[in-house]
Amino acid sequence: MKFAMHEFAVTQLMRTLSDPTRRAVFERLSREGELTVGALTEGAGVSQPAVSQHLAALKIAGLVRERREGRRTHYRVEPAGLAPLIDWFAHYSTFWPERFDQLEAVLKDMD
Amino acid sequence: MKFAMHEFAVTQLMRTLSDPTRRAVFERLSREGELTVGALTEGAGVSQPAVSQHLAALKIAGLVRERREGRRTHYRVEPAGLAPLIDWFAHYSTFWPERFDQLEAVLKDMD
DNA sequence: GAATTTCATAAGCCATGACTTATGATTGAG
DNA sequence: CTCAATCATAAGTCATGGCTTATGAAATTC
Questions:
Q1: How many CA atoms lie within 13 A of A84 on its CB side?
Q2: Which residues of A touch B110 (CB under 8 A)?
Q3: pLDDT score at A13
Q4: Which pLDDT tens digit goes with each residue over A59-79?
């Protein structure tokens, strides 16, 4: 079924986003837009290689894209990368509709 | 901020659900309702202690509840356990509204 | 009450992953 | 051309986690 098709993707996304440091990098890219590795390293609490490794993991998971510019590499979020996780949640919404009222309210506020 | 309050919960939930075997147990409880450890062990592909350990992890994460009945333990899903993850996604919906159209459509179909 | 069923916990093994320092490759500056 | 800046990769260390088998605890059966 369609659910099984995304199984590996869901596992990979959950796993990638489960690390707090890596998720913080992802969240910062979400809030601040495109950033260089150096900018991301500041305030990350870990070394530059660690940040590069986290960015590589995020890239493999399809959550970020890179743009080389001279000797700098700019990273930005790839919103479509979250799609399998959204599908996963949507699937559960059919089981427990009441639990999604809150999210539904948020979504409707956007309209 | 409210986001930081749930940070640990999000990490724990992502981590708990990132293991395919454990997530399969959770999904099966979602589909089939309350099940005993023995029933969950069948078809899990791992030993009974492994299943018990996964259930303990799910319980700590707040994703399942147990009900002792004689020598059997029945487990069922705790839907509220997913709330921090839903909040996390709702937060991102403000950044990328277009990516939540699909989920929103699913939710509206329920009405 | 002895044996069996059902589940949880303990102990140990092994793979994975997150971090470090060291180094290389490429680009920009002086 | 030389040096500095920027990032990625390599190698190694250490902790964590998921699995196993072994065992214990509690409840039912005979």
A1: 18
A2: 93-94, 97
A3: 97
A4: 999 999 999 999 999 999 998
